[in-house]
Design a protein that fits this description.
It is built from 9 helices and 20 strands. It has a 7-stranded mixed beta sheet, with helices on both faces. Strands 1-2-3-4-5-6 form a 6-stranded mixed beta sheet, with helices on both faces. The chain has 3 domains: 99 residues, Aminopeptidase; 121 residues, 2-Layer Sandwich (Fructose-1,6-Bisphosphatase, Chain A, domain 1), CATH 3.30.540.10; 105 residues, D-Maltodextrin-Binding Protein, domain 2 (3-Layer(aba) Sandwich), CATH 3.40.190. Helix 4 runs antiparallel to helix 5 and helix 7 runs parallel beside helix 8. A hairpin with a 5-residue loop joins strand 7 and strand 8. With 359 residues, it is an alpha+beta fold.
Length: 359
């Protein structure tokens, strides 16, 4: 990528001070932007840029270059950030120049094409969910869980975009299609954490994964309540809000809600348990090192659409997912079957957790 490949999303205090100096701004003015999922601070190769994600009056999502040290609008690294953000264009706030974000070529790796489309799908879901809120078309399903108008709107928006990939798309909101053996498939959870969304209690998320041979090869999870984004792909690594993510050992465990009629177990391998109500985000918290492990071993299980996106991020971040018998988790093109597993930074940590949870 030449000089354009050396710019990166700022991830440290040193990056912040370098960018502030190049932009002629106070570090105090930029520091909050490093914590905001709706902003990116790029630095490198003697240049810096401050971006914000916005919608135009016409409803087009764009990455706006708010401040820059030099002309950077067309740089590859900046366009890559915009693509991962699900933006259609980049706009220079100073000059008004607009650069379109091009899709990967048709002969690009499938994981790369998936990543671009999944980010666009998440953007469409953001809009669809917001428009469907309070529409009055919510209902209770036979199992007692809620089906919201936002669920259907999210599915329709995501499925339309992901169809461009040319592979079978499965979704929580539709009956399964048959996937030919050894063929790749995409699985969506257009709105994970529906209960959270209905209650207005974060997080709730969009999740998408590209699966082949029983493994998530690429995935994207977007916390729609905050804008946080986790992405991962084979041989490309894992990222949280544009910054490389890696697993790390820890004593915090994330888990689904308590089993019916029982309390949340704190295994001997953990010091505390966090319950978010959004499984897709939970697995990503293990992937980025915020939590040491996740499990649903003492529960009925979860579905492939809930976890496939996060599992791609977890694997790309160096993490491990093992079934209750200690075998590597294998994903099937079946959104009805429940699966149980433990996710952790290492195989040893996952096995210790499995041994510590009575089932």
């Amino acid at each position: 990528m030449g000089e354009t490949g050396t710019m990166r999303v700022a991830a440290s205090g040193e990056d912040l001070w370098t960018a502030a100096e190049l932009l002629g701004m106070s570090p105090a003015a930029l520091a909050p932007e490093m914590l905001d999922p709706g902003a990116r601070l790029l630095v490198g190769n003697g240049a810096a840029a401050h971006l914000r994600r916005r919608w135009t009056d016409e409803g087009i999502t764009e990455a706006v270059v708010v401040h820059r040290s030099t002309h950077v609008t067309g740089r590859t690294a900046l366009l890559a950030v915009a693509s991962a953000w699900g933006c259609s264009q980049v706009r220079d706030a100073g000059t008004g120049r607009v650069v379109q974000v091009a899709a990967p070529p048709s002969d690009a790796p499938l994981t790369e094409r998936f990543g671009h489309l999944a980010a666009l799908a998440a953007t469409q879901v953001e809009v669809a969910v917001a428009l469907a809120r309070d529409s009055g078309r919510d209902r209770v399903k036979a199992d007692g869980s809620w089906s919201l108008a936002a669920d259907e709107a999210a599915h329709a928006a995501a499925a339309e975009v992901m169809a461009e990939l040319g592979v079978t798309v499965l979704s929580e909101e539709r009956a399964d299609l048959t996937v030919p053996v050894d063929e790749p498939w995409v699985v969506l959870d257009p709105l994970d954490g529906t209960g959270n969304f209905r209650a207005g209690l974060p997080p709730w998320a969009f999740s998408a994964a590209l699966v082949r041979g029983g493994r998530s090869r690429a995935g994207l999870v977007v916390d729609l309540s905050s804008g946080r984004r986790w992405a991962g792909a084979e041989e490309a690594g894992a990222w949280r809000d544009g910054v490389p993510a890696r697993v790390r050992p820890g004593s915090t465990l994330v888990a689904p809600t308590a089993p019916t009629g029982r309390g949340v177990l704190v295994p001997s391998t953990a010091r505390r348990v966090r319950v978010t109500g959004c499984t897709a985000v939970d697995v990503c918290l293990v992937a980025d090192g915020s939590a040491g492990a996740w499990h649903n071993l003492d529960r009925g299980g979860t579905h492939v659409h809930d976890v496939a996106g996060g599992l791609a991020v977890l694997a790309a971040a160096g993490g491990v997912a093992l079934t209750a018998d200690g075998a590597p988790l294998r994903l099937e093109a079946d959104t009805e079957t429940l699966i149980r597993f433990a996710a952790a930074a290492t195989g040893d940590a996952a096995r210790e957790l499995i041994a510590a949870v009575p089932v």
